[in-house]
């Protein structure tokens, strides 16, 4: 009994401590899939045959297929000997999308994927992370297993030499290509079987393999690998073993391009037979081997631990100075919890003056993840009879929070959830003109905090689309005031949509960023 309790404690202790901006963002992208505060990825695959390409809602194609293939093409550049290539989003460069001989490019699936997935990329989630996350969410929402996701991939600055195997290459060339990528022959069979359960081969890009199909339900003439081309299942293996497969890389009329046949039979069909006989075996193998595939990164890149859902997670906590009050906004998410109107959720917080306060939180919504296998309940810091969160005392501020849910204390094992109120936007900020936008941002810096510098942060893309943060120094005021001194910056020619966050650095060199992003547009015209 004791040993069991200890194990559970240890496994929860490895979860990260909130707040951690990168892990918080990765965790949200991974687990806030549909419903309240949902991220974008799941919306691109609901239902699983969703496909959009420049407004064209074509049949026969699917985002899920494109995403998984694009991720593999990115990985396929990896050279395990020198550690170059791998999941680094280098596939976004046109040079890498060019293939060896027969054809000029890999079709529209890859640019399509890149366009969609990069909408989730941001300051804390690289393009390569989103390229792994997209297919992971697609697989688990379209019938497949849950796949361990780690973050921290680093986006390449240039193309790698293309490394994608071609259907007209021989078995030995394929074994060698997968070995270079770090996979054994058995891994290769598994990876191809796990990949080719989605999608198929398009006539347009492989006219020598697939003829025009003249099928009004398959307008792009895609010869699917199996009969359930948007479901992640073992049908490909079942149909292959039963000899009823229509996989164009198995039963194509030209033996030269039947690469799936050569690969699948290369171990005497042992692997494919095991997949055909057991859906569980297929799914567990795919979960393991695809996680390895997504985690194939260039040498020197350090991935995070596997991202697991945080049981209790404050969300979008924001503070704003407003005259003699400090406004607090926020929500909290409780993982694996459904709606229950009778549940009591209490927020307890401590302040700089040593007092403790409490307030009841109100139910705000539900979210789901992993094909609705998990549900999370969200509660908001709304005004209640006990407390007006818009009118906290700035001198007291807020230092840390904990929650009480139906009598159970949630405080990250005693640490609490720390809240930084050292540097906050002030809503004395204003726009001096609106066309073009010029204005004045005021930032409150808590007196007595060891703040060395304050700067505005603006998220921009560099010339190879990577997100970078541009810092603009904010000057300290001549005089200190209590409890907050106001540091100010004048902005000219600001685009009204530009979002600013505030960054600050403490005297010991640690840097922080606020959660709340504001545009000049959000503030009123300055009083004259
Ligand atoms: C020897 C290895 C491989 C060869 C020769 C190969 C070949 C191909 C070809 C010719 C296509 C058709 C592409 C098109 O029509 O645009 C395709 C599609 C696809 N491949 Fe592979 N592939 C291999 C390995 C893999 C691996 C390891 C994965 C992932 C784990 C994968 C995932 C996919 C997916 C999901 C599609 C469907 C794309 C869609 O429908 O949009 N392939 N593959
Ligand atoms: C992989 O890297 C090694 C070491 O740099 C090199 O000798 C080898 O040619 C590379 N393989 C390929 C296929 O580029
Ligand atoms: C589809 O139509 C084209 C043009 O008429 C023809 O060449 C092709 O063979 C047809 N494909 C099939 C699968 O019947
Ligand atoms: C079969 O495919 C190979 C490689 O693409 C090509 O060179 C050959 O001409 C094809 N054979 C036939 C009969 O179409
Ligand atoms: C593998 O299975 C396929 C499909 O049933 C069959 O055509 C082929 O002969 C088998 N190959 C071996 C080596 O058993
Ligand atoms: C989710 O909650 C249910 C009921 O409260 C519990 O039985 C189950 O073990 C929980 N699952 C996880 C993964 O924590
Ligand atoms: C409660 O707070 C949430 C999030 O801060 C907000 O979206 C919602 O409108 C608020 N609801 C009420 C009733 O005030
Ligand atoms: C600050 O914000 C509140 C509510 O958002 C608003 O009522 C108030 O007028 C604002 N103060 C200024 C100076 O704009």
Task: Outline the structure in words.
The chain has 528 residues and is of the alpha+beta class. It has three domains: 2-294, Peroxidase, domain 1 (Orthogonal Bundle); 312-418, Sandwich (Immunoglobulin-like), CATH 2.60.40; 423-522, Immunoglobulin-like, CATH 2.60.40.10. Helices cover 23% and strands 24% of the residues. The chain has twelve helices and 19 strands. The chain has helices at residues 2-13, 21-31, 63-75, 94-97, 109-117, 127-141, 171-181, 185-195, 235-241, 259-264, 270-277, 279-294, and strands at residues 34-35, 200-202, 222-224, 312-322, 325-334, 345-350, 356-360, 362-369, 374-380, 400-405, 408-410, 417-418, 423-434, 437-446, 451-461, 467-474, 484-494, 500-506, 511-513. An eight-stranded mixed β-sheet has the order 1-8-9-5-4-13-14-17, with no helix packed on it. Strands 6, 7, 10, 11 and 12 form a five-stranded antiparallel β-sheet that branches. A four-stranded antiparallel β-sheet has the order 16-15-18-19, with no helix packed on it. The protein is elongated and about 80 Å long. Bound molecules: protoporphyrin IX containing FE (HEM) and 2-acetamido-2-deoxy-beta-D-glucopyranose (7 copies). The site of one 2-acetamido-2-deoxy-beta-D-glucopyranose (NAG) has 4 residues, from strand 13. Residues 1-15 form the signal peptide. This is Peroxidase. Keywords: Heme, Iron, Metal-binding, Oxidoreductase, Peroxidase, Signal. Residues 44-333 form the Plant heme peroxidase family profile domain.
């Amino acid at each position: 009994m004791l040993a069991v309790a200890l194990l559970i404690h240890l496994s929860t202790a490895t979860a990260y401590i909130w707040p951690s901006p990168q892990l918080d963002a990765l965790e949200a992208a991974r687990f806030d899939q549909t419903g309240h505060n949902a991220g974008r990825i799941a919306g691109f695959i609901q239902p699983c045959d969703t496909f959009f390409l420049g407004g064209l809602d074509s049949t026969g194609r699917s985002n899920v297929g494109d995403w998984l293939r694009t991720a593999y093409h990115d990985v396929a550049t990896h050279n395990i000997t020198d550690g170059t290539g791998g999941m680094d989003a280098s596939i976004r460069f046109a040079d890498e999308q060019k293939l060896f001989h027969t054809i000029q490019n890999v079709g529209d699936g890859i640019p399509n994927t890149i366009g969609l997935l990069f909408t989730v990329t941001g300051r804390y989630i690289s393009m390569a992370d989103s390229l792994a996350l997209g297919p992971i969410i697609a697989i688990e929402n379209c019938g497949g297993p849950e796949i361990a996701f780690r973050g921290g991939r680093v986006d390449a600055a240039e193309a790698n030499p293309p490394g994608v195997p071609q259907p007209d290459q021989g078995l030995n060339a394929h074994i060698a290509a997968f070995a270079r990528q770090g996979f054994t022959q058995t891994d290769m069979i598994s990876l191809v079987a796990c990949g080719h359960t989605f999608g198929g081969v398009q006539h347009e890009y492989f006219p020598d393999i697939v003829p025009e199909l003249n099928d009004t339900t398959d307008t792009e003439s895609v010869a699917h690998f199996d009969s359930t081309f948007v479901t992640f299942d073992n049908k490909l293996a079942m149909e292959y073993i039963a000899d009823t497969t229509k996989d164009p890389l198995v039963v194509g009329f030209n033996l030269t391009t039947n690469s799936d046949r050569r690969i699948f039979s290369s171990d005497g069909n042992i692997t494919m037979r095991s997949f055909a006989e057991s859906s569980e075996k297929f799914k567990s193998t795919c979960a393991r081997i695809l996680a390895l595939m997504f985690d194939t990164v260039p040498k020197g890149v350090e991935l995070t631990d596997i991202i697991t859902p945080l049981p209790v997670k404050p969300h979008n906590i924001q503070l704003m100075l407003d005259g003699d009050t400090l406004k607090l906004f926020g929500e909290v998410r409780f993982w694996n919890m459904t709606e229950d109107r009778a549940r009591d959720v209490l927020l307890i917080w401590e302040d700089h003056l040593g007092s403790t306060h409490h307030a009841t939180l109100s139910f705000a919504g539900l979210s789901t993840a992993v094909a609705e296998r998990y549900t999370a309940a969200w509660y908001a810091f709304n005004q209640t009879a006990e407390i007006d969160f818009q009118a906290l005392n700035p001198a007291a501020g807020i230092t840390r929070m904990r929650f009480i849910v139906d009598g159970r204390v949630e405080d990250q094992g005693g640490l609490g959830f720390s809240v930084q109120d050292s540097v906050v936007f002030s809503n004395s900020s204003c726009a001096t003109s609106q066309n073009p936008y010029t204005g004045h941002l005021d930032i409150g810096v808590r007196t007595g905090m060891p703040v060395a510098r304050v700067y505005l942060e603006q998220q921009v893309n560099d010339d190879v689309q990577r997100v970078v943060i541009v810092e603009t120094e904010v000057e300290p005021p001549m005089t200190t005031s209590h409890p907050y001194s106001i540091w100010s910056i004048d902005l000219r020619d600001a685009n009204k949509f530009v979002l600013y966050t505030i960054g600050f650095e403490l005297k010991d060199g640690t840097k922080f960023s606020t959660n709340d992003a504001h545009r000049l547009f959000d503030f009123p015209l300055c009083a004259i």
